[in-house]
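Problem statement: downstream parser choked on a complex file, so we are re-checking the raw output for the magnesium ion run. The parser issue turned out to be on our end (a line-ending mismatch), but while we're here, posting the original submission so the record is complete.
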Amino acid sequence: MITLAITSQKGGVGKTTLAINLAHAFARSGRRTLLVDSDPQGSVGLSLTRQSRHLSGFYDMLGNPSVSAEKIIVPTRMPTLSLVASGHSSAYELGGGSMGVTLHRVRCFLAEVEALDYDICIIDTAAGLFGATADVLSACNGVIVPQQAEPLGVRSVPKMLEALARMRVVNPQLQVLGVVLTMLKEELTESRESAAALRNLLPAEMVMQTVVPRDDLYVRASARGLPVGVMEEGEESLATFDALRSELERRIVPANPETPDYAE
Ligand SMILES: Nc1ncnc2c1ncn2[C@@H]1O[C@H](COP(=O)(O)OP(=O)(O)OP(=O)(O)O)[C@@H](O)[C@H]1O
Ligand SMILES: [Mg+2]
């Protein structure tokens, strides 16, 4: 099973949007996909099922060994797409989660998910590399970093990638798959220039070819609790996330000798 974390140093760069739409793309391709919300804000849950605030989820599992993966997985209308909501995080936020213990819980959870025959588990995280996100990264085998195509923040990306590479001390399996440029506004010079600046700053293979354009449709989709591809006029975005999915698949497949190991 592929386990993929979506992480960034900065907030609001499009992690949740990427997680939802990428999970949708993998599910459409026939892969049994589990989308997990590990952000205490609970954004994925909010988008996908309105009642999810009341659902038990990721943090209930972290805090209680009797909460199994099976108990917190929620089906969606798509047979190949299921979801784990964020759940009740207050105990964890009050200091109930200490790294060693919760890392063990995350690993147990992923082992259970694999035993349930999922092909891929995509985990949306809160911004920053601490707390539960550190445990998720210590347990996953791939990580993607979305970055807004805007002037502020681009220069912090190499540092973020270095920090992720250092996580390989704890988790040698972790493949840093690269950066996805999000919210690119093609008609805005500053946005185009920021995208170019990021490509200049990093080794070419570290930035995905596929770019997520800025489009109000994404805001409307999240307000309606839907992946953007199922919206009327959402057709084009299906192609975007299909392209991103194949790009990732080419990088992830460990059997492919050409798969570069970016974190080295
Ligand atoms: N490609 C896009 N075009 C336009 N708006 C977008 C796009 N992607 C995301 N947004 C909007 O930008 C806001 C932030 O996106 P999102 O919630 O995905 O970011 P995030 O990184 O998960 O944020 P947080 O750090 O708070 O979890 C949301 O209102 C979302 O609808
Ligand atoms: Mg989010």
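For whoever reads this later: The radius of gyration is 17 Å.
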